[in-house]
Amino acid sequence: MDFTQIKEILEGVFSDSGYKIANFTFTFPKELGISVKKVDEILHLDFKGNLPSVKTKKLFIPFSVYVEGVTISEDGGSIKLKHFPDFNFTYADGITSEPRFGSHNKSTFNNNLFIQDIDNEYKDSERRRIARVALKYARQWADLVNQNNIEYTRENKKKLITDCENFVKENMIRSGDIEARSGILAFVLIYFVLPAVISWVVKKFLDNYFNGA
Q1: Which helix (H) or strand (E) holds 143?
Q2: Quick count: other Cβ atoms within 10 Å of Cβ 89?
Q3: What is the pTM of this model?
Q4: What is the mean pLDDT of residues 88-107?
Q5: Rounded distance, CA 7 to CA 41, Å?
């Protein structure tokens, strides 16, 4: 990678439109803490404080994904996203007419059947609503992971479930989709009800989604 390429990337990520790699567009905050080191011709960038954000195409619902670091080599690199496995890319992915990230595998997961499972599990309307919103975020998380051919195995299952749960909770709280009528109710909602419902949804959903249910 020469200086011109580095300059193009830096100008892009700090612009309003961001910089596109594959089907991801990166936007950096105007003030960014960053640690840079080079090891064996590989450039490692780790971000601190206000993290860069990334957007991708074909979203079910708006959500935020934050970049914790980027590794850049001669042919490509990897992106460390908050609450996601690392995503690998090559520069060729960013210049194709149909940019892609992985194989875009299609899961045979049946969304309507899972909605029925939610309704059977939760009899009250409030937890049903929370579970349905959680399902939308979990589905978006899983689709991005699936696109990059991340395997859902016994070895990494626990880590993937935790990442998905944290992603869902963070975005649900930030989006304001779930609100309480008082401070006490908000405490109960955020620290007890929300984690319990999200945990049930994510574990059941990921097992069904990656197993082709």
Answers
A1: helix 125-147
A2: 22
A3: 0.71
A4: 48
A5: 18
